[in-house]
User: Fold Site-specific integrase from Symplocastrum torsivum CPER-KK1.
Amino acid sequence: MPTTRSSGLPSLALTEPLPLTLHPTAVYLSLLAPGSRRTIKQSLNAIASLLSDGQCDAMTLDWSALRYQHTAAVQGALMAKHSPTTVTKMMTALRRVLKEAVRLDLMDPRDYAKAIDLPKIKTTQNLRGRALDVDEIAALLEACAEDPTPAGARDAALIAILRVGLRRAEAVKLELRDFNASTGALEVRSGKGGKNRRVYLPDGAMELVQEWLALRGDEPGALLCPVFKWGQIHMRPMTPQAVLLILRKRAREAGVASFSPHDFRRTFCSELLDAGVDVVTVASLAGHSSPSVVAKYDRRGEETKRTAVQHLPIPRKKKR
Assistant:
């Protein structure tokens, strides 16, 4: 029999542990890319804590017992604390867990349909982040060139790779075998959503990667490796957090205003669109499932739009 809370409502805590193969949270997390699991689990832990007055986490909450009143209350509470974008991501995680509960025959599909029938979360249209200009990227690479240690060449190669739209988690997963020195191709394996894709480095970027490889050597393993302070290269993968710290360090040295690793993707997509590359190709290179996602990176100004419409013919009849 379920326990009760001080409020008098039935407890949502599991009365006994579920096997991992039957636990909706465990099943859902197992289907995610490794880099996403930690963030999603944090979101689910926060939701479980809200629902149980801090008594449960994602693994001890009985998700199958949730009904519309619970999910509606969660969305309202989250909206009071977080941005619409964050709430949308957290509620998506909640829906996915409930969907796994249905698939595992722990929750009635009718209860699931009611529980997820929530008002749409309105998000603002303001874009976060920024695009870097050519001078800023040149300054970052110059800061790397002034570093005589292998870290300077490694960081220049990292910037060159991020420059072609890779996510930082994708960049650190690259191995030596993923780089084709003759074509400049990079094989991105198990990117976001578990998808593979191929991207290409321009000639200048290829040179930077090859300069790094001349120091790294041809030992199989991670393409980008940690470099100790005394210049020793450690043959293991870097972490996404290390990428963030490296870029912050080079930005300080170069006098470049604050930016995020993801801003390289914004720059990549925006510049390709500005160069007239079709949105489908840009989406493919950036690893987006839908071209519509790429549209948010379009930071072309009003003058570009004004110029574009000048190509439209407007036939007019000649006056008699």
Q: What stands out?
A: Strands lie at 179-180, 185-188, 197-200. Confidence is low (pLDDT under 50) at residues 1-9.
